[in-house]
Design goal:
The chain has 496 residues and is α+β, with helices and mostly antiparallel strands. The protein is built from 14 helices and 19 strands. It folds into 2 domains: 141 residues, Beta Barrel (OB fold (Dihydrolipoamide Acetyltransferase, E2P)), CATH 2.40.50.140; 263 residues, BirA Bifunctional Protein, domain 2, CATH 3.30.930.10. It is 34% helix and 25% strand. Strands 7-11-12-19-18-17-16-15 form an 8-stranded mixed beta sheet, with helices on both faces. Strands 1-2-3-5-4 form a 5-stranded mixed beta barrel. The chain has a 3-stranded antiparallel beta sheet with strand order 8-10-9, with no helix packed on it. It binds one RNA strand of 75 nucleotides through helix 1, strand 1, strand 2, strand 3 and helix 4.
RNA sequence: GGCCCGCUAGCUCAAUGGCAGAGCAAGUGACUCUUAAUCACUAGGUUCUCGGUUCGAGUCCGAGGCGGGUCACCA
């Protein structure tokens, strides 16, 4: 702590001691709150509707943090912030007597409890006239500046509580996220899904193409991985006869950090027996509509100046991937089934192909460069090549493709879904191809063979529609933020 | 990881290579309807770190740290 910082700290410590010397406990165990700030304001409005203009309510008790103090000698206004909002308190010497002196030892940031009737000031603001005041917790460090708030992005993320104290938007996003997640649970629960928990520490990091975090179990003396997906465990439960399962859980990918990526993020995965990807598409439409309505009160949201409608007339367009790629790049990928020809076509279309090695990797680049940026309003890209999708079932009409869709909003992939591959022989072959690719292209992330999973589906997995959705990204869309760090309470940062 | 930008008082921000400043917060005083309260005064600095150039560096140069942006990879 700097000297200047220390002196601010010392001033508050002195106030703390002064409170104690006056017999006031600056850290009491409890406070009997009767109303939130919002409830108190509502109570006043009720009283005003019943009586005349200058109504007073019964005595209420409020608690919150001091965010502003306006002292005028023998009367002072204090702004109190609680979980629902801000409310003004009036303290007057002729009401409080000796107790009024406590103001000298209060600071911005302190928690207080106040008791008294609600009334309206001359400037028409709902206010509590304080008859009793109690310190609930003395703060020893100062708050960020009251008008500009906290602008330093680094401090906002490292000390999230300061962001939450000084930014209405930070509080809004935190609440929105909570409402979104709980409404997802309600949606799935109401449809007969059961929520389950599967291992975070796994012997094989499979179920997606990503680099895993590695850790070590001392007693077992073996390396374990943090899961990169929940997919293969949820499918084991489908094999076991749990027909509709889902998990909302943290997954971990040891990849770059940017606007759209945090090394740990929250994914919803759901699996429904006897369904296919067409059924799942409908479910995604209904779920996003439900979640937007529950969390926002509307299916329409402003995202960076453009309105997104999660429930467009006629549903989300189903866009055939092959058609879209041809439309935006002129390349028909089925015509170029080998790496060299596809690569030269892409290079001719002006795409940087220097980093990509496998055919699937090239396709991924082609789609994300040429097609995804055009998908602003909600839409599904449908029917991917088999090489890009080792866990998806072959298309019923074309074995070169799989029954897979991804949902896009604002150019961002928010979900990925298949008719799940339940043919154990084909699944083993696909895994083996992935393993071969993994060896051939060391730098590229491939899905890994999970023998235990193969044994499971060799016992018979029913036809299943599965889906994974990035919860952080969904909350970004709902809240209008284009950075994942704004919707994660504690985003990953370099340690100091 | 490459490239670009930023880092000054607790917070928000100034300062041609020439005395390091303002507002808020803090302290003292005045003030019984203010709301970015007002008024007067006071105090507050390792200018991210290390090194260099210079008579003189917050400012120029080099290295490093942290953050942001962007490109590449991943959802």
């Amino acid at each position: 702590m700097s000297e200047a910082e220390q002196s601010l700290f010392d001033v508050r410590l002195a106030k703390l001691e002064r409170l104690r010397s006056r017999g006031i406990d600056p850290y009491p165990h409890t406070f009997d709150r009767t109303h939130s700030t919002a409830e108190a304001a509502a109570l006043l409005e009720t009283a005003e509707a019943a009586n005349s203009a200058d109504a007073k309510t019964e005595t209420v008790s409020l608690a919150g943090r001091i965010t502003a103090m306006r002292e005028m000698g023998k009367a002072s206004f204090i702004d109190i912030l609680d979980g629902e909002g801000r409310l003004q308190a009036l303290l007057r010497k002729n009401t409080l007597g000796e107790e009024y002196e406590i103001l000298k030892d209060l600071d911005l940031g302190d928690w207080i409890g106040v008791t008294g009737p609600m009334f309206r000031t001359r400037t028409n603001e709902a206010t509590i006239e304080v008859q009793q005041i109690q310190v609930l917790s003395k703060a020893l460090r100062p708050l960020p500046e009251k008008w500009h708030g906290l602008a330093d992005v680094e401090v906002r993320f490292r000390q999230k509580y300061l962001d939450l104290i000084s930014s209405e938007d930070a509080r809004r996003v935190a609440k929105l996220r909570s409402r979104a997640v709980s409404s997802i649970r309600r949606f799935l629960d109401d449809r007969g899904f059961m929520e389950v928990e599967t291992p975070v520490l796994v012997p094989v990091a499979a179920g997606a193409m990503a680099r895993p975090f590695i850790t070590h179990h001392n007693q077992l003396d073996r390396d374990l991985y943090l899961r990169i997906a929940t997919e293969l465990y949820l499918k084991r439960l489908i094999v076991g006869g749990l027909e509709k399962v889902y998990e909302i859980g943290r997954v971990f990918r040891n990849e770059g950090v940017d606007f759209y990526h945090n090394p740990e993020f929250t994914m919803l995965e759901s699996y429904e027996a006897f369904a296919d990807y067409n059924d799942t598409m409908v479910m995604v439409e209904e779920m996003t509509k439900f979640v937007a309505t529950q969390a926002l009160g509307s299916t329409k949201v402003d995202f960076q100046g453009t309105e997104i409608d999660f429930a467009p007339e006629g549903g989300w367009p189903r866009l055939n991937l092959r058609d879209e790629v041809i439309k935006h790049s002129g390349i028909d990928f089925l015509e170029y089934p080998d790496i060299d020809s596809l690569k030269s076509q892409m290079a001719a279309a002006g795409i940087d192909v220097s980093q990509q090695a496998s055919w699937g990797g090239l396709m991924d680049k082609l789609v994300s460069d040429k097609v995804e940026p055009h998908l602003f309003q909600p839409a599904f890209l449908v029917d991917y090549p088999v090489e890009m999708s080792p866990l998806a079932k072959r298309h019923r009409e074309d074995p070169r493709l799989v029954e897979r869709f991804e949902g896009f909003v604002a150019g961002m992939e928010i979900c990925n879904s298949f008719s799940e591959l339940n043919d154990p022989v084909d699944q083993r072959k696909r895994f083996e191809e992935q393993e071969a690719l993994h060896k051939a292209f060391k730098d590229e992330d491939m899905d890994r063979l999970d023998e235990d999973f193969l044994v499971a589906i060799e016992h018979g997995m029913p036809p299943t529609g599965g889906m994974g959705m990035g919860i952080d990204r969904l909350v970004m869309l709902l809240s209008g933020h284009r950075s994942i760090r704004e919707v994660v309470l504690f985003p990953q940062l370099r340690s100091r």
